[in-house]
Amino acid sequence: MDKESFPRWAWLLAGLVAAAMVSQVINLAALRPLGLPEAFEVVTTITLMSPVLIYVGLWYDDHRQEYWDHSRARIVGDVLFVLAGALLGSATVLAMIVDTGWSRLILDVLAMFAGFVAGWALFWWRNTELYGGESETR
């Protein structure tokens, strides 16, 4: 895939749409039949979108290409950390606020924020060298 064939936002949009579609298939085929409450279906979407947000940026930014020199096992571990962080962050926040009576949109946005921040924080924790000198160069 040539990253220059489309702008960054197009790759990000395509990845997020694909993640949303896969999450809906997982929700409909596996989680809903198991009895997952409908309010928690957003957790699957958040979990699958988190790596897209991180890895499209890594793939597209020329100054972060050294990340891809890591071993495949390290990269898979990072993806699993991002998935686990997003899952735990969004599910925890949603579990705490689901019975507040707030609108579904507010619940989803708060869960998204918590999931994305938790996933990115775990990625950053494992890859601090990618972001260490950024403030000095900008």
What order do the helices and strands come in, and which of them pair?
Elements: H1 8-31, H2 41-60, H3 72-97, H4 104-126, H5 134-137
Helix pairs in contact: 1-2, 2-3, 2-4, 3-4
Keywords:
mainly alpha
In short, what is this structure?
This protein is mainly α. The protein is built from 5 helices and no strands.
Radius of gyration: 16 Å
Could you give the order of the helices and strands?
A: HHHHH
Output the number of helix runs. Answer: 5
> Mind summarizing the main beta sheet?
none
C-alpha end-to-end distance? 29 Å
Q: In percent, how much strand structure appears in the residues?
A: under 5%
Mean pLDDT: 92
For the secondary structure, the number of strands is 0
Look at the helices and sheets and give the structural class.
mainly alpha
Low-confidence stretches: none
Report helical residue fraction: over 70%
Shape: globular
Account of the protein in words:
The protein is built from five helices and no strands. It has 138 residues and is mainly alpha-helical. α2 (41-60) packs across α4 (104-126).
